[in-house]
Design goal:
Elements: H1 5-30, H2 32-88, H3 93-176, H4 179-190, E1 196-200, E2 203-204, H5 213-221, E3 228-229, E4 236-238
Helix pairs in contact: 1-3, 2-3
InterPro entries: CT398_CC_hairpin (IPR056003), Oxidative_Scav/Glycosyltrans (IPR052376), Zf-RING_7 (IPR003743)
Organism: Actinomycetospora endophytica
Protein name: C4-type zinc ribbon domain-containing protein
Amino acid sequence: MKADPSAQRRLLDLAAVDAELARAEHRRRTMPEQTAVEEAEQALRAASDAVVVAQTNLSDLDRDVAKLDREVEQVRSRETRDQGMLDSGSVSAKQMTELQHELDSLARRRSVLEEDQLEVMERQEAAGTDLEHENQAHEAAKTALEDAVERRDGVLGDIGTTEVRRGEERTTLLAELPADLVELYDRIRAKGSVGAGELTGNRCGACRLEMDRSELRDVQSAADDDVVRCENCGAIVVRGKAA
């Protein structure tokens, strides 16, 4: 293939643009800021789950306290009723004995319930404190996620700006280069190689490997408008100096 030496040198500009675009794409795929977002999302999910567990625990204890309150109130109501009957003097001696026995039993029952009530209320208070702490942790995790997203989006914005600018440069360069030269260059890149590199001494600028004497002699002796390729990587070897 033949191509004007100046067009071949313009391939170096195209290769530089493509290298920056490749770095931007690699940065997008491997950016630690995205990993930080994913970790923050996981932490927020864990914090949300912890809040649900704490809320459930507190709700269960609230129900237990309410149940004990009702039971204590029922016992006290029966005590009031029985004591009222005793105080009225309108019951027989046998009924008085039975009422006193029931009052003693009710007092013991109320004592047990009030002890249970106190223990559950202490647990309820501790559960409320736990829920408050979990809510605070959730808010902290939410803020951390928002910060991580902001940092990631900032980096993505920079990458996007680079891609747009370099994409525009690439479009301009393609319009200035011979179609067959661009086609060859793109075929080389499609194989995962650098499309073109400058010959520096005896080293290919694309793969950075040194050429042996025979290859170097063939490259250097080729006509200026010959499109020569590196035997190691297949890239177009650009020779000579810029005009």
